[in-house]
Design goal:
197 residues; 5-stranded antiparallel β-sheet; globular; Lipoprotein; signal
Length: 197
């Protein structure tokens, strides 16, 4: 993105930040027992091989860890405003890739036998939209497209989840695919810039 466009985006975010009202009472509330139960049922529906105990544990941990991270990241604002504060050094963490990495690490610590984590990225090839990262949970051996997006970033510390293919806001791609594309793209860009355009 050209420097001028980034500058305009920063001005817009600063204006938005000035209008946003932070939560005075701290991070968003944790998920309810009903929230956990709904996610548990969705995880169970991923396939016949999903262990019910693992589905329950994954759902509980997804909500508990989202709330724990919201406290650690000092979330009091909507996601975009919090991003601005992180990028300005005013908050410690809370960019989407922080959420994705920390959620993936926590869920993988459970050593699930019937569930698998995937990392995904959206908007990487669109210069206008903000790139976004998440973790996706699937039945062991299934692709991320058969899974459930676990996205605590988009609602500013409240867990959003959806079947991957039903997520209307983002078109997800495997993280490894995007990183390989970027590596190739960045190398090509360096060569072009080094050769004078």
């Amino acid at each position: 993105m050209p420097v001028f466009m980034r500058f305009l985006a920063l001005l817009g975010l600063m204006a938005l930040s000035a209008c946003a009202t932070p939560r005075a009472d701290g991070p968003p509330p944790p998920g309810t027992a009903q929230d956990v139960a709904r996610l548990e049922q969705a995880v169970l529906s991923l396939g016949a091989e999903v262990d019910p105990e693992e589905a329950q544990r994954a759902a509980r941990i997804a909500y508990e860890h989202t709330h724990q991270l919201a406290r650690e990241y000092q979330i009091t604002d909507p996601a975009i405003i919090h991003n601005t504060k992180v990028n300005m050094g005013l908050k410690p963490r809370g960019l989407c890739w922080h959420w994705a990495k920390d959620m993936e690490t926590r869920l993988n610590a459970e050593n699930f036998q019937t569930l698998q984590m995937h990392r995904a990225i959206a908007n990487a090839k669109n210069p206008i939209l903000l790139e976004h990262s998440t973790v996706i949970l699937s039945q062991q051996g299934d692709s991320m497209f058969d899974g459930i997006v676990l996205d605590p970033w988009r609602k500013g510390g409240e867990l959003f989840w959806s079947p991957t293919l039903k997520d209307r806001r983002y078109n997800w791609h495997p993280r490894a695919e995007i990183l390989a594309w970027k590596l190739g793209h960045d190398r090509a860009q360096q060569l072009l810039e080094g050769a004078g355009g």
